Amino acid sequence: MAFTVYVDDNFHYRDAEERYKLGEYETLDAAIAACKGIVDDFLTTNYKPGMSAAGLCGQYAAFGEDPFIAGAGVTSPFSAWDYARQRCEAICRSAP
């Protein structure tokens, strides 16, 4: 069973022309790791010292990429927005 990761652009919400295929993965865990990597890259690149979790999450919601997994029998195993909210809290809490 292959799991395909597609990536939408939050800045171009609902614009299918902005979607791209990141790749195919043999396991769900590998597909989820790829999705988390997309979100983490955006958050760590866009974090500024002193930024609040809400501010960072707002940047993600407006300009980040929204990866999702498709495949036989896949029913939303990963939510990029939920993951981003958790990571924003962790990044901003642990920052000096």
Strand fraction equals: 15-25%
Distance between the termini: 43 Å
Radius of gyration: 14 Å
Structural class: alpha+beta
User: Uncertain spans, ≥5 residues at pLDDT below 50?
Assistant: none
Largest beta-sheet characterization: 3 strands, antiparallel
- Kindly give the count of domains: 1
Strand line-up in the sheet with most strands? 2-1-3
If you had to describe this structure to a student in words, what would you say it looks like?
The chain is an alpha+beta fold and 96 residues long. The protein has one domain. Helix content is 47%, strand content 20%. The protein has 3 helices and 3 strands, in the order ββααβα. Strands 2-1-3 form a 3-stranded antiparallel sheet. The chain is globular and about 45 Å long. The mean pLDDT is 90.
Strand and helix map with partners:
Blueprint: E1 3-9, E2 20-25, H1 28-46, H2 53-63, E3 65-70, H3 80-94
Antiparallel strand pairs: 1-2, 1-3
